[in-house]
Design brief:
Layout (H helix, E strand, L loop, with lengths): L3 E10 L2 E2 L1 H9 L6 E2 L12 E2 L13 H5 L3 H16 L12 E6 L5 H14 L8 H5 L3 H10 L5 E2 L7 H14 L5 E8 L4 H9 L29 E9 H6 L6 E10 L12 H14 L8 E3 L6 H15 L7 E3 L2 H4 L6 H15 L1 E2 L22 E2 L4 E8 L3 E8 L4
Parallel strand pairs: 5-6, 5-7, 10-11, 10-14
Antiparallel strand pairs: 1-2, 1-8, 1-9, 3-4, 7-8, 9-15, 12-13, 14-15
Helix pairs in contact: 3-6, 7-13, 10-11
């Protein structure tokens, strides 16, 4: 039986870039949410987001390529480069046909789309960039990273809204299990803080409107939550078959041991009120890991800070775990970095891996008064120091997509 381990981690996030910087910020409870600076939001009902700041794409790409590619590709290339470096991966020694890339994006190159719509209506169709289509399509982060790294193995870009990165990592895990590849760069990326997307999510009434208190806007499981905060960034993991990793003396951060994917088949945006799809996805991940439900110690929740999601996810957890729920720890990375959409599952999987490594569960910010309908033990405003061996990562997307990963501390 092949085993799949994590040997490299790369991050571009609203609270810092690189595995160590990102984790230290999470553990310290650093808040990455503030006023939008990427464009003028004067007429917008929502004027806050979790932007990636202090990011220099020129460290990873030449200026010509930067101009010909979307911000989501910049994030992807940077996170992948960091992950390869973190893994100390000698790409020259790899069988390139067994070196894959699975990177998803919910919105793809939406910044490019937004800009070219403007050009079309202001200047006409002949002024559209010839690079518009390859800059915009959602598969391009995976394709571009493969070209940079010469990865000629399986290549996939999953698009399942907010479950995108979790499903993408899960499918990469399966690809290595079934012997399609030995090494895969996998995760998710998003760069959707643009006028059309912010206006669209605001129109759907999914976003927090705490414009005057951005640092208090993302408040998962709190009774006063009023919506999520848009985020952006990228997370990329190096997944590797265990023997392959051991043969090159790789440092191992953790192991993926289970994956669950289901659909609510209920509504275009709302979760099924009984949490059925979420329950089945968590149960599937636990079963495929070979665990008992009582083995789970931490759930890195989807925890969006929306009224419906947090209530439904809490119900799903309580229904599946029963009385054992009270012995769990639950936290939400989105309280610190906002909702990274297609990148969320990667940013949160990385947080969960670091909890396994460091024995620290990062805080959930702004939990001033837990909603009685969110009847799960949520970690509050301070990190908890406790050994963790088994963790679930939950992500659920518009359209009823549910993805759950089961991760464990690596043991021989």
């Amino acid at each position: 039986m092949r085993r799949v381990v994590i040997t490299g981690i790369g991050v571009v996030s609203p609270i810092g870039h690189g595995r160590e910087v990102y984790w230290n910020a999470l553990a310290a409870g650093k808040n990455g949410i503030g006023p939008v600076t990427l464009f003028d939001t004067t007429d917008f009902p929502v004027r806050i987001a979790a932007e990636v700041r202090d990011f220099d794409a020129g460290l990873y790409m030449d200026r010509k390529e930067i101009r010909r590619s979307d911000r989501v590709i910049h994030f992807s290339v940077a996170a992948a480069a960091m992950a390869v470096e973190d893994a100390k991966l000698d790409e020259g020694s790899l069988d390139r046909t067994r070196y894959g890339v699975y990177i998803g994006s919910g919105e793809g190159g939406i910044s490019t789309t937004n800009e070219n719509y403007r050009i079309l209506y202001e200047k006409g169709p002949t002024r559209i960039s010839p690079f518009f289509i390859p800059m915009m399509i959602s598969n391009m982060p995976a394709a571009y990273v493969a070209m940079v790294h010469g990865a000629k193995g399986p290549n996939l870009s999953v698009v399942t809204a907010c479950a995108t990165a979790t499903n993408t990592i899960g499918e990469a895990y399966y690809a290595i299990l079934r012997d399609d590849a030995d090494v895969i760069l996998t995760g998710g990326a998003e760069a959707a803080i643009v006028p059309i997307a912010l206006a669209g999510f605001a129109a759907a009434k999914t976003l927090s409107t705490r414009n005057d208190e951005p640092e208090k806007a993302s408040r998962p499981f709190d009774v006063d939550r009023d919506g999520f905060v848009m985020g952006e960034g990228a997370g990329v993991l190096v997944l590797e078959e265990l023997e392959h990793a051991k043969n090159r003396g790789a440092r191992i951060w953790g192991e993926i041991v289970g994956y669950g994917a289901t659909c609510d088949a209920y509504h275009i945006t709302a979760p099924s009120p009984d949490g059925d799809g979420q329950i089945r996805a968590m149960a599937m991940a636990v079963r495929k890991a070979g665990w008992r439900k009582e083995d789970v110690e931490l759930i890195n929740a989807h925890g969006t800070s929306t009224p419906l999601n947090d209530k439904t996810e809490s119900l799903a957890i309580r229904t599946l775990f029963g009385d054992y729920t009270d012995k769990l720890l639950v936290n939400s990375t989105k309280s610190l970095v906002g909702h990274g959409l297609g990148a969320a599952g990667a940013l949160e999987t990385i947080a969960a891996i670091q909890s396994l490594v460091e024995g620290i569960v990062h805080p959930t910010l702004n939990l001033d008064s837990k909603d009685p309908e969110c009847d799960v033990p949520v970690v509050g405003k301070e990190a908890i120091h406790v050994p963790i061996r088994h963790v679930l990562v939950n992500n659920f997307g518009f359209g009823g997509h549910n993805g759950v990963l089961a991760l464990t501390r690596f043991e021989e």
